[in-house]
Write a structure and sequence with these properties.
Radius of gyration of chain B: 19 Å
Radius of gyration of chain A: 23 Å
Low-confidence stretches of chain A: none
Number of domains of chain B: 1
Mean pLDDT of chain A: 81
Oligomer: heterodimer
Helix content of chain A: 10-25%
Mean pLDDT of chain B: 89
Distance between the termini of chain B: 58 Å
Order of helices and strands of chain B: EEEEEEEEHH
Order of helices and strands of chain A: HEEEEEEEEE
Low-confidence stretches of chain B: none
Largest interface: A-B, 28 and 29 residues
Shape of chain A: elongated
Number of strands of chain B: 8
Largest sheet of chain A: 4 strands, antiparallel
Number of helices of chain B: 2
Strand order of the largest sheet of chain A: 3-7-5-6
Helix content of chain B: 10-25%
Largest sheet of chain B: 3 strands, antiparallel
Strand content of chain B: 35-45%
Strand content of chain A: over 45%
Structural class of chain A: mainly beta
Number of helices of chain A: 1
Chain lengths: 155, 130
């Protein structure tokens, strides 16, 4: 192989890599719910929220999903401690098209490794959920913050 | 009721009883591209030791570029209709219109910074040493 041919190949390869880099778009989706209740309240509903974004029919790789929870629920005059999970529940729902049919893949948090690539991405929905409580005798102190985020690439 | 948020930013919603007292409040923060949206379904009633209490949502604040709806309606329109439905008095309706609904108290030390801190100038003399 001549030096000129090799240089030409390297140049083409470099251009291809640069074009690929330009076409790759990294995206973030994040949703936080900060809930506070008056002490008069004896029933706490379950917490549910979702953030969503439409995609551009590209190939999607989910890079990271994480959920954080701060605070919680305590009985005001209850001798029995309330037991609950340490974290909220979060998942990312990815919708894509395959042969004209709508497909869905769900990814649970936490995850810090890239998912397999999914072609023809249509939309992502990031959901977060936490428990509800009912107390017949005790007033409840509630201050809880629930946050979820996801990073994904679309190429 | 469903709160739909279009666009990134933060909003604060107070849920008041017929006397105008905030029983529940939520601060919702959405981050992402300009096209990001969020949905938060909320039950408009709570149980207290005194019994069942119906609530009305009041949008206290929202991000400048955000568009918010309550069950597909403009928040103010929904709030006024819901307040009348649960029996809020005229004074409560006036307090809502004037933005006088009090959110639940927050610990003073836990209030996040709302403005960007001022960057100190290089070489500037601190006021204490002048």
């Amino acid at each position: 192989m001549t030096s000129a041919t090799r240089n030409d190949m390297i140049s083409r390869q470099d251009r291809w890599h640069r074009e690929e880099a330009v076409a790759l778009v990294s995206k973030m989706l994040q949703f936080t719910i900060d809930q506070q209740l008056s002490q008069d309240v004896a029933t706490i509903g379950p917490l549910f929220g979702e953030a969503f974004e439409f995609l551009n029919s590209g190939t999607v790789t989910v890079r990271e999903i994480a959920v954080q929870r701060l605070g919680g629920i305590a009985g005001n005059n209850s001798a029995i401690p309330l037991t609950e999970s340490n974290n909220g529940f979060a998942e990312l729902r990815l919708f894509w098209s395959q042969g004209g049919n709508l497909q869905e893949a769900d990814f649970l948090a936490p995850s810090h490794v890239p998912s397999p690539p999914f072609a023809n991405g249509l939309a992502v929905i990031l959901q977060v959920e936490d428990l509800g409580f009912t107390s017949a005798q005790a007033n409840l102190n509630v201050a809880r913050r629930l946050g979820v985020h996801a990073y994904f690439d679309e190429a | 009721m469903e709160i739909i948020i279009n666009g990134p930013g933060e909003l604060l919603v107070c849920f008041i009883d017929p006397q105008g007292k905030t029983m529940l409040q939520e601060r919702l923060r959405v981050s992402g591209s300009d096209g990001v949206s969020a949905r938060r379904p909320v039950n408009l009633s709570v149980e207290t030791r005194k019994g069942h209490v119906e609530l009305s949502p009041v949008l206290k604040s929202h991000g400048g570029t955000q568009h918010v709806t309550f069950d597909g309606q403009e928040p103010n329109k929904f709030t006024m209709a819901r307040c009348k439905e649960i029996g809020c008095s005229e004074s409560v309706l006036r307090a809502i219109s004037d933005g006088r609904i009090e959110p639940l108290p927050t610990e003073p030390g836990h209030v996040p910074t709302r403005e960007l801190p001022v960057r100190p100038q290089h070489g500037a003399v601190p006021p204490s040493s002048r």
